[in-house]
Amino acid sequence: MGVVYIGDRNVGKTHLALELAKPPGNFVSVSLLNQSYEALRDILLEFDGTARQTKTIDTRFLDVQVRLPAGASQIPVDWIDPPGEIFRKSWQSGHTDEWNNFLKRVRQSEGILLILPPYREILKSAPDVNYDEYVTQQQWCNRFDRWVDFFRNDCPKARQIVICLNKADLINCDLDQEASKLAYDPYDSKMNWFGRHNYVIYRYFRPVLEQIGQINSSRSGLSVRCFITSIHNRTLLELPWIYLASYLAT
Questions:
Q1: Which residue, among 145, 147, 120, has the nearest Cα to 134 in the 3D structure?
Q2: Which residues of the chain have pLDDT under 50?
Q3: Residue 223 to residue 110: CA distance in whole angstroms
Q4: Which tens digits make up the pLDDT trace of 138-165?
Q5: What Rg value do the Cα atoms of the chain yield, rounded?
Q6: Are strands 71-81 and 111-116 parallel, antiparallel or unpaired?
Q7: How far apart are the first and last CA of the chain?
């Protein structure tokens, strides 16, 4: 079993992975091939704290440990950090080997964790939010169609596809309240996983409900689950990984 961790350009994949690796966690911890959290920050971030831009496909291995009622579960993760233009035909034709290696990895994976940015219309009104950095809802939906094709055509072994709307702290919602509502408690959860998915999909993914249904129905035994994530809330950050561990861990 393996999970591939991917996402749109400038969506915050690097910071999410770093924050997940930052001790201590609640239910989730990450092993980074004997690299300390501080060393990994130096490798992945610029001096100003921004993620280093990727010109080629970088792959790193994460060993994610999740504490479940039955004991610790392990998720081996290929963190694939491609350049933002990877789905452009011009990039693929000029980087044939890299593109084929990327497809080889995702085609063998049983779990896919996709990170997406919010769209402009869902953002809260605040002076520190730069709306020009985010696409419109229509543009976001058009880009989501690209992921639909990718999941249906290039992920034949995936049993679980997890889609995370990241930077939830910028979305027009009460982040702490949402985290409390969606929180995982192994002995007294307010919601089960399907309930969490339904709540999130109808509140935050409504513009692409039909497309998500297309992914779900494209192959027997495939499940798509949606989450919101933020580096500013550990509860929301860990939820997708706890879910994956519950269904895929060895």
A1: 120
A2: 250
A3: 11
A4: 999 999 998 999 999 999 999 999 999 9
A5: 17
A6: unpaired
A7: 7
